[in-house]
Design a protein that fits this description.
alpha/beta, Barwin-like endoglucanases, Vcp-like ATPase, Chain A, domain 2, Rossmann fold, 6 domains, 26 helices
Length: 797
């Protein structure tokens, strides 16, 4: 407690001047006679050095740091000590102040400060003390100035709903530090009182930062307060636990941000989503009360947009925000919720942040509020990894229940629009009725939708593209979502500069820009054409009938009631161009090509192998029309043997589970549309019969050893770039390579050229002796037993 002084001593310390109505110290009585009377009611601009008390206000120039110990406050933390100003008991009594009262300290040097008054001994009279750390940061400009200390009028005090601070210090915060700095600064400002223009000093990890209070919004706004014509006294604002804090960047950064701010996205700038935009807009306007609700219709307060990454979910949110902005006469409030910024490392603060956002929406009632949340699966995930995630999920679900509750009248004009690119990672409870009960999928666009997207993207670009050109690009850009098409057009524009955009620029960009859904499984196929494969004309025709015809002549297949084959199996000896045919198929068909090697699907973890198979077909459906190529399919589609693999951890059991998953994907409940399976194997007898039945892999093609005409064509292709001597007879080579596979014929040509280099590095051509050596070195390795196996298999099937 502060020391108490006797009343006689108090009376002797102060003198009351009847002429000017002030209380001055007894020591200053002689000097006062020369300046009496003191003019003005609150003249803090006066040049007089006198210090006095008048009409409940203390006027003083004596400001010092607190360099003494106050017994009752010696253990007070620095944060709370900085909130105090120490005034003598007599001055407090004459100014009609009580202990713990908020007072306003005014001067000409800076904006007013608000502190809590605390008494000190009467011996200090008009001298005012502040904490040392507070003095260095806030009071240095006031030293030597006339200060006016008076009680804070509570009528001028408002609880802040939100405040905006502008950083004015030279030290700048990085964007990654803003979140932590905002949270710490808000905690430091709780219970503090400020006025507009007040400078707030803050130490952030040894960085001295200074902010200026620009504006605030009260927790409860009085709509009639602004209608008064009388001059308002200075207003003050108090920061509370629920006050939202916004940091405004420095002037230069704000100007740069305004220059680089993207233009507002409207509905006319989004292509291929006309029906979806109309549905979302109708739901939003019904929920916000912007459209008359039909009788008996129960409005939905929440809608979930889901789909693959890049399909336009965020753009739909921006378009709906633009629609709401255009309803300015309805005063629609738009609140964006960044799921990543809601989380806090402090216990319980994340739930408070969420509750404050919804309370802000309710406080806007009866005006409508639109809530926008991106990646809502981060707020309410299916897998609750820790207690904090679980608490946040439960809090969010509870807030959604309040939103749709008939007892929550203030939520009756609020609409929540959320997006998610990982619908399987979202908690199932959030999708039940009364929460996010309206769902809309934004899938991979069709060719017509892709054409509309490209037309929207090039409408502000100088180009020479006709509607047919755009349609051609849309037809061959299978699996491209909106973001991929935007990247495609951007790449094409860069290649076209400074010329107008043309069709060839888009065709060149298709080589480098691939569908985003294919990036994890994308393969770089060599540029293999059908003309690079010798012979196999029948096989080539069969592949075109199965894959290219259904796409190019779909209406004819429908007219005749023909269903294209689901899968094709190529079998034959090694080296007979089965894999090379698949590469040529990928190049010539211009379809999305997924190459799967059997062993890479297996995993030591239970369930992971089946998940890998599901993921392959999910990707294939997402980027359809597509081709899934299984090389050496006997590794995963081997025939199941009875009595084997009874243990769940055995290898054969894993193999059986993978095969079962593969069979289900090929011909299960979920239809496999526009996805063709191409498989290759050397041992067709080892493949499970269920995999080869009609409806799954229903076309079986034998790729045998090349015959004479096929060998002749292979040799002409391989010998085309090779300089040959006149004594080399291709027809004789065809005769001598009987029984050779295509790969072995290529090895003969390669060995002959190497033999020529071996004899002389100056050799300019390959002669017949080199081929004789190559034929002796490279012998056919396809055994008669294997050929007999293929003949027997063909007879059985």
């Amino acid at each position: 407690m502060p020391p108490k002084s006797s009343s006689k001593k108090n009376q002797a310390s102060w003198y009351h001047c009847e002429t000017c109505g002030v209380h001055i110290t007894s020591k200053a009585r002689d000097n006062h006679d020369g300046s009496c009377p003191i003019s003005g009611e609150s003249n803090i601009d006066a040049d007089s050095d006198e210090e006095y008390v008048r009409n409940g206000s203390l006027y003083t120039r004596s400001l010092q740091q607190r360099n003494f110990e106050v017994e009752s406050l010696k253990d007070l933390p620095a944060k709370y000590a900085n909130m105090l100003v120490f005034v003598s008991e007599g001055a407090m009594r004459l100014s009609q102040l009580h202990i713990g009262q908020h007072v306003v300290i005014e001067s000409t040097a800076q904006e007013p400060l608000v502190r809590i008054v605390w008494p000190v001994s009467e011996q200090f009279l008009t001298t005012v003390f502040v904490a040392e750390s507070d003095y260095k940061s806030n009071w240095t400009n006031m030293r030597g100035k006339l200060l006016k200390i008076s009680a804070l009028d509570t009528k001028c005090l408002t609880a802040a709903g939100s405040i905006s601070l502008r950083q004015i210090s030279e030290t700048r915060l990085k964007s990654a530090q803003l979140k932590d700095a905002t949270a710490l600064l808000q905690r430091a400002m709780v219970n503090q009182i400020y006025c507009q223009g007040t400078k707030i000093h803050f130490n952030f990890f040894n960085k001295s930062l200074t902010f200026r209070l620009e504006s605030w919004q009260g927790a409860v706004e009085d709509a009639l307060a602004s209608l008064s014509l009388e001059a308002k006294p200075r207003q003050f604002v108090q920061v509370t636990n629920v006050t939202r804090l916004q940091l405004i960047p420095q002037e230069e950064e704000q100007q740069l941000e305004e220059q680089t701010r993207p233009l507002r996205i409207t509905k006319c700038q989004i292509g291929g989503l006309d029906k979806q935009l109309q549905l979302v807009e109708e739901s939003m306007e019904y929920a916000l009360g912007l459209r008359t609700l039909p009788a008996g219709l129960k409005v939905s307060r929440g809608m979930l947009l889901y789909g693959a990454t890049g399909c336009g979910k965020s753009m739909v949110l921006e378009a709906m925000s633009a629609v709401a902005d255009d309803r300015s006469h309805r005063n629609v409030q738009i609140i964006r919720i960044n799921s990543g910024e809601v989380y806090s490392k402090f216990l319980g603060e994340t739930e408070q942040n969420l509750a404050a956002i919804f309370e802000r929406a309710y406080a806007h009632y009866p005006q409508p509020t639109l809530l926008l949340i991106e990646d809502v699966h981060n707020l309410c995930p299916k897998q609750e990894s820790n207690d904090m995630v679980k608490r946040v999920s439960l809090a969010f679900l509870g807030l959604l229940d309040q939103l749709s509750s008939p007892r929550q009248l203030r939520g009756s004009r609020t609409f929540l629009l959320a997006t998610s690119s990982q619908i399987d990672a979202l908690h199932p409870s959030i999708r039940r009725a009364g929460r996010l009960d309206s769902e809309l999928e934004l899938g991979v666009p069709s060719p017509q939708a892709r054409q509309a997207i490209i037309e929207c993207l090039i409408q502000s670009v100088e180009h020479q593209l006709s509607s047919e050109d755009v349609g051609q690009i849309a037809t061959i850009s299978h699996g491209y979502v909106g973001a991929d098409l935007a990247n495609l057009v951007y790449t094409a524009i860069l290649q076209a500069q400074p010329q107008p955009l043309q069709l060839r620029h888009l065709q060149e960009a298709l080589i480098s820009v691939k569908p985003s859904a294919m990036r994890e499984v994308l393969i770089e196929c060599p540029n293999v054409q059908w003309s690079d494969i010798g012979g196999q004309s029948e096989l080539r025709l069969a592949m075109q009938q199965a894959i290219e015809w259904p796409l190019l002549h779909a209406e004819k297949f429908q007219r005749l009631g023909i269903k294209p084959p689901r899968g094709i199996l190529m079998f034959g000896p090694p080296g007979c161009s089965k894999t090379m045919i698949a590469k040529a198929l990928a190049t010539e068909s211009k379809l999305n090509f997924l190459s799967i090697k059997g062993p890479e699907l297996f995993s030591m973890w239970v369930g992971e192998s089946e998940r890998a198979v599901r993921e392959v077909f999910r990707k294939a459906r997402q980027v359809a029309p597509s081709i899934v190529f299984f090389d050496e399919i006997d590794a995963i589609g081997g025939e199941r043997a009875e009595g084997e693999g009874s243990g769940s951890g055995s290898g054969s059991s894993v193999k059986e589970r993978v095969l079962t998953q593969l069979l289900t994907e090929l011909d299960g409940v979920e239809a496999l549309q526009n996805v063709t399976i191409v498989a290759a194997t050397n041992r067709p007898d080892l493949i499970d019969k269920a995999l080869l039945r009609p409806g799954r892999i229903d076309r079986i093609l034998y790729v045998g050893l090349p015959k004479a005409d096929a060998r002749s064509e292979i040799l002409r292709i391989k010998l085309r770039p090779m300089p040959l001597a006149k004594d080399v007879e291709v027809d004789k080579l065809v005769e001598l390579t009987d029984g050779y596979s295509g790969a072995e014929i290529q090895a003969v040509c390669h060995e002959a050229a190497m033999r020529a280099l071996e004899q002389s590095f100056d050799a300019e051509q390959v002669d017949w002796s080199h081929f004789e050596h190559a034929l002796a070195a490279v012998q056919p390795r396809t055994s008669p037993e294997l050929l007999k196996l293929y003949e027997d298999y063909l007879k059985r099937k």
